[in-house]
């Protein structure tokens, strides 16, 4: 079989930065009994997320596989694969982050339990764009936040692809949703949502009114759940410079997040290195509140919950087909142009970047 064209990256220190390149790799591996060979048609890539997870999960930040949220067609199946997966079946799924294979490649090998059948009415680009962000939204709202009808949810950065899906899932669960924006374009995008959110809060360097806006909207009661997109942790100038937090524009401070929580509130955070000082813990204690870490790859790093995981992916695809969940705007680019496109400065944070083959 011909060599595989795969996207890989080097996530080096801040001086050298990040580099992406297309690698030509020989296809030599045979399928295990429960594995399938998929010809990739589309792969969603979020470089910042790829870098963060690589630094956490990998012993090396060199030659890292890029792309894990994929959609394509099955070329070959292992001997013990279930009958629903046949050659030519269109599938969508997430490649585990402990795999040394790149999902952003011509061909990829996945375990049958990491895939579900793609609805025929969905394009490969849309399927790849929603599978990862949708899984994160379901995990945050249902499995970590335990959101129910009548709850109030604050979604930070609602114009981002993950924030957009999280808003929709929270609304489907019957929650009242508040969200934040960073730019005028973000605000205009959020204002176009149907059904509309309850309140849109400005969150910029010149404005820090999030906690007061939440208090006003909730009558001083606070929200039942906050889903963040990262937080700032430091207040001293020395620590801010040391941790490069001056570069984090429009990211709320952890104290502001805690101030928004009501009784028994749940803080769902994507900040992997979150540090809580004693005063922060005391404020959480007084609210009877809790902190959960949102790390969607945990679903595929263990097989303990793959039944629920499969159910989430199937339910997500059904709701997208039914029009109950909509995909964020997509920017598609062929694999040959992927390094140049993904390495551009100031990528549009409201768009999903999809690599096509």
Quick gist of this model?
This protein is α/β, with parallel strands linked by helices.
Tell me what you see in this structure:
With 357 residues, the chain is an alpha/beta fold. The protein folds into 2 domains: 4-129 and 321-356, Quinone Oxidoreductase, Chain A, domain 1, CATH 3.90.180.10; 149-293, NAD(P)-binding Rossmann-like Domain (Rossmann fold, 3-Layer(aba) Sandwich). Helix content is 30%, strand content 27%. The protein contains 11 helices and 17 strands. The chain has helices spanning 47-57, 124-144, 161-172, 184-191, 210-217, 237-242, 254-260, 278-287, 298-301, 306-321, 338-342; strands at residues 4-11, 18-25, 35-44, 64-65, 69-77, 90-94, 107-111, 115-117, 152-155, 176-181, 199-204, 207-208, 223-227, 261-269, 290-293, 330-334, 352-356. The strands form 3 sheets. Strands 3, 5, 6, 7, 8, 16 and 17 form a 7-stranded mixed β-sheet that branches. Strands 12-11-10-9-13-14-15 form a 7-stranded mixed β-sheet, with helices on both faces. Helix 11 (338-342) links the parallel strand 16 (330-334) and strand 17 (352-356). Helix 5 packs parallel to helix 7 (254-260). It starts with a strand and ends with a strand. The model has no long low-confidence stretch (mean pLDDT 91). It holds the Pfam family ADH_N.
């Amino acid at each position: 079989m011909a060599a595989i064209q795969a996207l890989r990256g080097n996530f080096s220190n801040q001086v050298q930065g990040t580099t992406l390149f297309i690698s030509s790799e020989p296809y030599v591996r045979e399928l295990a009994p429960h594995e399938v060979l998929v010809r990739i048609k589309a792969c969603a890539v979020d470089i910042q997320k790829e870098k963060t997870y690589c630094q956490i999960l990998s012993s090396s930040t060199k030659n890292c596989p890029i792309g894990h949220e994929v959609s394509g067609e099955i070329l070959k199946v292992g001997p013990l694969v279930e009958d629903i997966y046949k050659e030519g079946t269109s599938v969508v799924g997430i490649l585990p982050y402990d795999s040394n294979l790149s999902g952003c490649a011509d061909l990829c090998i996945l375990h049958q339990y990491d895939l579900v059948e793609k609805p025929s009415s969905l394009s490969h680009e849309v399927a790849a764009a929603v599978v990862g962000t949708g899984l994160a939204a379901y995990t945050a709202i249902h499995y970590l936040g335990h959101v129910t009808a009548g709850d109030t949810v604050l979604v930070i950065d609602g114009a981002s692809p993950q924030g957009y899906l999280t808003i929709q899932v929270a609304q489907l669960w019957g929650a009242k949703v508040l969200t934040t924006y960073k730019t005028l374009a973000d605000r205009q995008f959020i204002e176009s949502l149907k059904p509309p959110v309850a309140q849109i809060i400005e969150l910029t360097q010149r404005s820090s009114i999030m906690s007061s806006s939440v208090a006003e909207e909730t009558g001083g009661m606070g929200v039942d759940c906050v889903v963040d997109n990262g937080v700032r942790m430091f207040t001293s100038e020395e620590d801010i410079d040391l941790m490069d937090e001056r570069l984090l524009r429009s990211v709320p401070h952890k104290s502001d997040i805690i101030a928004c929580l009501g009784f028994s509130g749940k803080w769902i955070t994507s900040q992997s290195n979150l540090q809580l000082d004693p005063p922060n813990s005391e404020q959480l204690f007084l609210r009877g509140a809790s902190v959960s870490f949102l790390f969607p790859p945990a679903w595929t790093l263990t097989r303990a919950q793959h039944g629920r995981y499969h159910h989430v992916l199937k339910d997500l695809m059904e709701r997208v087909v039914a029009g109950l969940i909509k995909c964020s705007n997509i920017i598609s680019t062929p694999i040959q142009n992927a390094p140049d496109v993904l390495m551009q400065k100031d990528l549009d944070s409201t768009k999903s970047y999809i690599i096509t083959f």
